[in-house]
Amino acid sequence: MSILYLVGTPIGNLEDITYRAVRILTEADYIFCEDTRVTAKLCQHYSINTPLKSYHEHNKDKASKQILELLDTDKTVALVSDAGCPCISDPGYELVNQARDKEIRVETIPGPNAAITALMTSGLPSYKFVFLGFLPRQAKEKHDVLDKWMQRESTVMIYESPYRVKQTVKAISEIDSNRKISLGRELTKKFEQVVTEESTIIEQMLESEEIPQKGEFVILIQGQDESLQDTTWWEEMNLKEHVEFYVENHEMRSKDAIKQVSIDRKMKKRDVYEAFHIQE
Predict the structure, then answer these.
(1) How far apart, in whole angstroms, are the C-alpha atoms of residue 123 and residue 184?
(2) Which domain covers residue 106, as residue numbers?
(3) Which pTM does this prediction carry?
(4) 63, 150, 160, 236: least surrounded by Cβ within 10 Å?
(5) Mind telling me which SUPFAM superfamilies this protein's record contains (predicted)?
(6) Is 162 within a domain?
(7) Is 233 inside any structural domain?
C-alpha cells in the first residue's frame, strides 16, 4: 500500500533524528526534499541510499503531480525539508490535501522544530504561543503584524533571516521598548546562541555584534501582561462596529468575530449575532 511519509529531520545537529525516521527514509522508494545537496549529507551520514528528488516552493505543483503518480503505483514517498518538519513554514500542506483527497495514507514521523526548540530554552512563558513564521519584508507591513500580535498574552514565535533580524528587533522595540524577547540562532549547532533580554538590549547586542548576524534566527516575543491590556477599548463602539473591527483588523470571519465580541462584552453569542444582523 502506498504511503506518503512526512519526516522530521535535524535542524542542525545530525544526531537529532529518530530511529524511526532513519528507517522510513531507508525503506522509502523516493525521498522528496527542498535541496538534494542538503538532504544528501544527512543520507550519507546514515548510509541511506534512497533516490532523492526535489520538492520546493518553485516546483511544488509539478513535483506534487509526480509524487501522486508514484503513490498511485503503490510506491512509498518520504517528504522532508532542509531542516525540521515539512509543511511548517515550508511547502507541503497542499500535497497532503491532494493525497487525502485520493484516500492515500499519510503518516507523520515527528522531529525537531526550531520554534519549539527556541521556546523551550528561552525562559519565556510557554503555555500560550502563536507561530507567525516569516514576517512581511516591507517595514510598514511588518510593523502592523507585530503591533497586532504583541497586544495579546501569547508568546509570539517568528523566523527571521540574518539580513533582516536587526530591522525586526528595532520594530519590536518601537512598539514596546521594555518587552522581553529571546533571540535564538544556530540552534543545536556548534555556535548555538540564545539570549533573552528586553528588546532594546537585544537591539544593542546586535548593533555591537555581540550577537553575530549569522545563521537563521528564531525570535520570541513575550506576550503582553494581561493586567496592562486595555479591556474597555471597544466601549464607544456599537456591536456592529465592534464585530467589524475584528473582521477588518484581525482578518477574522464574521462568525469568529461575533464569538470574540461575546467574550469581550460577556454577552451570549446568540445575542451578539442577532444584534449584529439587525444593525446591518
Answers:
(1) 12
(2) 3-112
(3) 0.79
(4) 236
(5) Tetrapyrrole methylase (SSF53790)
(6) yes
(7) no
